[in-house]
Amino acid sequence: MRRARSVVLVVAALLLSPAHGGGLPSQAARTAAAPVARDTAARHELVVLVHGMGRSSFSMRPLAKALEDDGYEVLSFGYSSYCCGIPELGSRLRAAVDARITGDIGAVHFVAHSLGGILVRWLLTRDTLPPHVGRVVMLAPPNQGAASADRYAGLAGWLLRPMDGLRTDSSSTVRQLPPVRGVEIGIIAARDDRTVRVMETHLDEESAHIMVGGGHTFIMRRPDVIERTREFLRSGTFANTGSPVPEP
Question: Which domains does the chain have, with CATH numbers?
Answer without folding.
Answer: 2-8+43-235 (3.40.50.1820)
